[in-house]
TrEMBL record:
InterPro entries: QueC, Rossmann-like_a/b/a_fold. This is 7-cyano-7-deazaguanine synthase. Belongs to the QueC family. Zn(2+) binds at C188, C196, C199, C202. The gene is queC. GO terms for molecular function: ATP binding; ligase activity, forming carbon-nitrogen bonds; zinc ion binding. NCBIfam families: 7-cyano-7-deazaguanine synthase QueC.
């Protein structure tokens, strides 16, 4: 019997690499994408669909979560809050979406239970979390415990975080090694046509490519 994994796939570089690692480990992938009112929602959805084609994923879920825009409190979902472009500062940044990964993992768990999957892949990275509390190894371990406590006895889910301890440059190198179509991935928090190059996410991505001595294939606005 084939083993199945639910992969939370945002369309970004990290989650895409995590899905390629799942494939490399022999899992049949069920892809899950969330439209949650983020500024680059359309671009991320386009990236997700392209990556599903690249990976030849047949089973995919596109889930709408409208309530994040109702609660706001994040520069990603509230357009009245500017996305910071001055570089990473200490503390939890304004781009943190309240308990987003906890909610994503809960929904993905329901799908995994229905699909009788054995694993759930998420591309969280502690270094890149920029102070996001829901991207830590410790949080994922506790979520795994809660998930297995709150599902059927026959559901035994492992949350796999193959990138959690990697630096962004390691992620770029690993992605190139696995022939991940990085031109189909999107990381920018602000723009959908050309990446801004100055938000925290763009800075981390560009720095990762620079340290890996590689060229980022996506378009950036000229600085």
């Amino acid at each position: 019997m084939s083993k199945k994994a639910v992969c939370i796939l945002s369309g970004g570089m990290d989650s895409t690499l995590a899905a390629y690692i799942a494939k490399d480990e022999g899992y049949d992938i069920i892809a899950v994408h969330f439209n949650y009112g983020q500024r680059t929602q359309n671009k991320e959805l386009e990236s997700f669909r392209n990556i599903c084609k690249d990976l030849e994923i047949e089973q995919k879920y596109e889930i709408d979560i409208p309530f994040f825009t109702q609660i706001g409190a994040s520069a990603l979902t509230d357009k009245s809050i500017d996305v910071p472009t001055q570089g990473v500062k200490p503390g939890v940044p304004i781009t943190y979406v309240p308990f987003r990964n906890g909610i994503f993992l809960s929904i993905a768990t329901a799908i995994a239970e229905k699909e009788e999957a054995q694993a759930l892949f998420i591309g969280v990275v502690e270094e890149d979390s920029s102070g996001y509390p829901d991207c830590t190894d410790s949080f994922i371990k506790k979520m795994t415990s809660a998930i297995n406590e709150g599902t059927k006895e026959s559901t035994k889910l492992e949350i796999k975080t193959p990138l959690v301890k990697l630096m962004k440059s390691d992620i770029v190198k690993k992605a190139l090694e696995l022939n991940v179509p990085l031109e189909h991935t999107w990381s920018c928090y602000k723009e959908e046509e050309e990446a801004c190059g100055v938000c925290d996410s763009c800075r981390l991505r560009l720095n990762g490519f620079k340290e890996a001595n590689a060229v980022d294939p996506i378009p950036y606005k000229a600085n």
